Amino acid sequence: MDRLLEVTIDAIGNVFGRRSERRDLPPLMTGSHIDTVRTGGRYDGNYGVLAGLEVVEVLNRAGIETERPISVAFFTNEEGARFHPDMMGSLVYVGGMPLGEALAATDRDGKLVGEELSRIGYAGSAPVGRPHLHRFVELHIEQGPVLDREGVTIGAVDTLQGISWTELTIKGTSNHAGTTPMRLRHDAGYVAAELTAFVRRMAREIGGDQVGTVGSVKLFPDLINVIPNKAVVTVDVRNTDERRLKEAEARVAAFAEEAAKAEGCSVEWKRLARFEPVTFDSGMAALIERAAKGLGFSVRRMTSGAGHDAQMMQRVAPTAMIFVPSVGGISHNVREFTKPEDLEAGANVLLQVMLELAQ
């Protein structure tokens, strides 16, 4: 007999579908997100939500009742591409960010999260706060090349990189591009270029799991024959080691100040997001391994280089993630692709994990 999901939407726009149970116990939750970046593909986030719904459908078709409820969720603004910080919905859900602060966040056009949720009909009435959950498991594409290159079907994710996002505004002086001698320039664009090159060098020098990216550079007044008087630059640095992540942040800050001063410019800072590295529940990761091996799939432990809602959920419940391969390691790109047989494999591992945890 089909068990319809009881659907609720909370005040930050997170959506939950709850399946009934034999006993009134804290729910087992799975899910992910359905938002994307502008250049994104169809698998990032969506896969984990659809697979969670598929698990419920399989249980319904088989007439299986579970001891505890199962909840399938998708969270608001996981990507953070329009509103900062990323993982906003899950962060508010676990009590890590005040609701009012999240609703007041603005995009580049000055539009508020709260207003946009109301406009699309997702300003829900369910309260947010620190929830009482049994476990959380998130199924996701890897978004990297490891599984695909190694020919492994399932990743049991036990650690996740720390993330630091910063926006720097470099201010100089506009002047004529032809008549101003190089020694007399205060070129904000030049400082931005120097910083971009430094972030890459710095990541290589620290080595290990350190990565660094300058993903957005905007120059003003953005004219071919005018020296830029302002540059707005974003810096994304990540590491599984908190100490090394702090080192990277410090080195970026020191270099930006030094480069700006040398060019007669100033620099202002804005923190967009900062999350420490996460170690997931070892028992959950081991369960994923056992389930994968029991189904005959190759499996390996691994780290996630991307941020995920599971990163926030670990604060309130034992959590882990299941990865499936991304062909070519390509993600945040319309060419993002995972083979159908790997999608099915991941969903079957999720089913087995959910069954064991729900009973």
Give the helix proportion (percent range).
25-40%
SSE class: alpha/beta
H and E string: EEEHEHHHEHEEHEEHEEHEHEH
Number of individual domains: 2
The third-level CATH topology of the largest domain is: Aminopeptidase
What global shape is seen?
elongated
- State the major sheet: 9 strands, mixed
Spans where pLDDT lies below 50 across 5 or more residues: none
- Beta-strand level of the residues, as a percent range? 15-25%
Q: What is the number of helices? A: 10
The averaged pLDDT comes out at: 96
* CATH architecture name of the largest domain: 3-Layer(aba) Sandwich
Give the arrangement of secondary structure elements.
Layout: E1 6-9, E2 15-19, E3 28-33, H1 46-62, E4 70-75, H2 88-93, H3 99-103, H4 113-120, E5 135-141, H5 146-150, E6 154-160, E7 162-171, H6 188-206, E8 211-220, E9 230-239, H7 242-262, E10 266-275, E11 278-279, H8 282-294, E12 299-304, H9 309-313, E13 319-324, H10 340-358
Helix pairs in contact: 1-10, 6-7, 8-10
Defining traits:
single chain; 359 residues; Alpha-Beta Plaits; nine-stranded mixed sheet; four-stranded antiparallel sheet; 10 helices; 13 strands
What does this structure look like?
- There is one protein chain.
- With 359 residues, this protein is an alpha/beta fold.
- It folds into two domains: 6-137 and 307-317 and 332-358, Aminopeptidase (3-Layer(aba) Sandwich), CATH 3.40.630.10; 162-275, Alpha-Beta Plaits (2-Layer Sandwich), CATH 3.30.70.360.
- The protein has ten helices and 13 strands.
- The chain has helices at 46-62, 88-93, 99-103, 113-120, 146-150, 188-206, 242-262, 282-294, 309-313, 340-358; strands at 6-9, 15-19, 28-33, 70-75, 135-141, 154-160, 162-171, 211-220, 230-239, 266-275, 278-279, 299-304, 319-324.
- Strands 1, 2, 3, 4, 5, 6, 11, 12 and 13 form a nine-stranded mixed beta sheet that branches. A four-stranded antiparallel beta sheet has the order 8-9-7-10, covered by helices on one side.
- A hairpin with a 5-residue loop joins β1 and β2.
- α1 (46-62) packs across α10 (340-358), α6 (188-206) runs antiparallel to α7 (242-262) and α8 crosses α10.
- The longest helix has 21 residues, at 242-262.
- It is elongated.
- It starts with 5 loop residues before the first strand and ends with a helix.
- The mean pLDDT is 96.
